[in-house]
Amino acid sequence: MKIEILTLFPEMFETFKSSSIVGRAVxxxxxxxxxxxxxxxxxxxxxxxxxxxxxxGAGMVLMPQPVSDAFRYVFSRYSEEQKPxxxxxxxxGKVLTQKLARQLSKExxxxxxxxHYEGIDQRAIxxxxxxxxxxxxxxLTGGELPAMVLTDCIVRLIPGVLGSSESIVEESHSAGLxxxxxxxxxxxxxxxxxxxxxxxxxxxxxxxWRRMQSLKNTLQKRPDLLDKAVLTTEDLSMLKELKNSL
Length: 246
Ligand code: ADE
Hints:
Helix content: 25-40%
Largest sheet: 5 strands, parallel
Number of helices: 9
Structural class: alpha/beta
CATH class of the largest domain: Alpha Beta
Bound molecules: adenine
Oligomer: single chain
CATH topology of the largest domain: Alpha/beta knot
Number of strands: 10
Order of helices and strands: EHHEEEHEHEEHEHHEEHH
C-alpha cells in the first residue's frame, strides 16, 4: 500500500516512518509512506499557505491553491485506475473503528490530508476528499497525529506486516471483546504469582480461563461492547456467573 501524506509539518512523520512495526513494513516494502509539504506548493513568493477566514473569526485557513496543487501533483503520479482514495483527518469525520481500518487496509493507495489552524478552504475539500475520518470525539491542533494513528491502525492489518508471533495475539475489538491479561517470567515477582492455570500446560483450561478473563474485562471496563460481540452459549453462561459474582 502506498500512503501519501499532505501536511504542513512533514518532520512530524520522520520518526514514525522509521520506527517499530511501521518502520519494518516500510523496510520490507510492504508499504511506502511519503510526505508532501503543502507549503512547498504555494505559488505565493513567501510560500504562504494560509490566510484569514472570510467573514472573520479566529485562526487561519489553508488556502485552496497550495492544497489543490499538492493533490494534483500526487495524482499525476498515478494512473486513473490506481487513483488513491483521499481521506481528510477531521473531527467532523466518520469515527475510526477496527471495522473501518479493516476496510481501508484493502486499498492500494491512500492520500491523507492533514489540516491545521482553523481548517482548510471548503472548496479544496469538496473537490478532492472522498472520506473524512475522525480518531475520536475530541479536538487536536492538527491532523498529523490522527494521520499517524490511522496509518498505524491500517498498516498492522496488511498481510505480512506483523510477524507470526505478533499476529497470533488475539486483538481487542476485532473479536468484539477486550483482551485477557498477559504474564511472562518470572512465575513469582515480588511476592505476586502468575495465575496457576497458565503454568498447568492444560491448553483447554487455559483457553477457558482466558475467555472468562476477556468477558470479565469487557463487562467491567466496556460493557457497551457486549451488545455487539459474538457470544456463544458458553460465553453467556460465563457472563451470568460473572455478573452474579460482582
Ligand atoms: N483534527 C483535529 N482533531 C481531530 C480528530 N479528533 N480526528 C481527526 N482529525 C482531527
